[in-house]
Amino acid sequence: MDVQSPIQFLSNMLEIYSPSGKEEELARFLEKELKSLGFKVWKDRAGNIYGEVGSGSPTILLCGHMDTVPGWIPVKVEADRLYGRGAVDAKASLAAMISAASIFKHETEKGRVTVAAVVEEERKARGIRQLIREGLNVDYAIFGEPSGVRNIAFAYKGKVNLRIQCKTISGHIGAQHLVDNAIEKSFDLWNMLKGTCQSYKSPHGVFYSLIPCMTHIISRRTSGGVPDFCLIDIDLRLPPTVKSKESLIIAQNVVKDFQAGNQGVSILFRVTDRVESFVAKRTTPLMDSLRKAIVEVTGGPVRFLRKTGTSDVNIFGAKLHIPVAVYGPGDARLSHTRLEYIDIPEYLASIKIYERTIDQIFSVNISGLNQQKA
What we know:
Elements (H helix, E strand, L loop, with lengths): L3 H12 L8 H13 L3 E4 L5 E8 L2 E7 L10 E3 L2 E3 L3 H16 L7 E9 L7 H9 L5 E4 L7 E6 L1 E10 L14 H17 L12 E10 L8 E10 L5 H17 L5 E10 L2 E2 L5 H14 L4 E5 L4 H8 L4 E3 L14 E3 H30 L1
Parallel strand pairs: 3-6, 3-7, 7-15, 8-14
Antiparallel strand pairs: 1-2, 2-6, 4-5, 5-16, 8-13, 9-11, 9-12, 10-11
Helix pairs in contact: 1-3, 3-9, 5-6, 7-9
């Protein structure tokens, strides 16, 4: 690809609206483009698209996601900024990975690069779960997420999603003093849980604290009646010191204590999703190669980031114990916003950084083999 081609490639990807569950059109586009660039291409049962170049060992997995959150943003270029839904999270990373990997299509014996474009990262990670089931044989993995061009993300918080249903006995709204209001009781329970989580607040900051967030609430009542049904969804963000099992015990104990003081209220509690936190090792050939590449292209300095969100790397890292890093262009604060854009010079720099990282890992491997032969 020439200098302009990667920009047009990303722009074409942004023009294809691909919220979670609706990635088919983008998958077809990438399948065609990967083939035209000389990749060996295949598709799995979940709808993930894979492209592979090179041969031999080691194998480097470059993994990015095709899906975005909902909400169309017109694609346009203004003052070195390319706007569009997914520009930051995370089509720029995926496009840069494909552009970088294509350079190695004529390499023989030095190593393989497998690019994976996965589905539903923004939902329940169906794509990465299927990728793991595929049993790919890889030695290193880089996940494309917006870390910023000079930063490497190595740690992500976990999460537990809860759905809590509160039921009471309804009564006439004019006699509200005689019955429990399901909405108010749900908020009482929420405040108890929020207060309990405060005791897990860390002096070391948000990343090491247990953070709850109410994400959804609906209620129901009969005409003229006091609300007798309320459902709330809660997202618990977990630090590495709190596993999902422990967070569930914390939440269940809050519900138990609340129930003991509110005999007329019925509470149903269930888990809708759970992902463990993940912390990657920072002293690996992959991290060293990526750090060196960033310095060579940008001049540095390089920062290692702890992220308060979750990503596919959480699930991958829990299953495959290989060197992993998270890297990609873009300001993560723009993710999921109405003003999402990628800085074009940063995007182009990330392509060079991916290229040099791959080349350096291949070089380290060849050097190691030569030392063994000697």
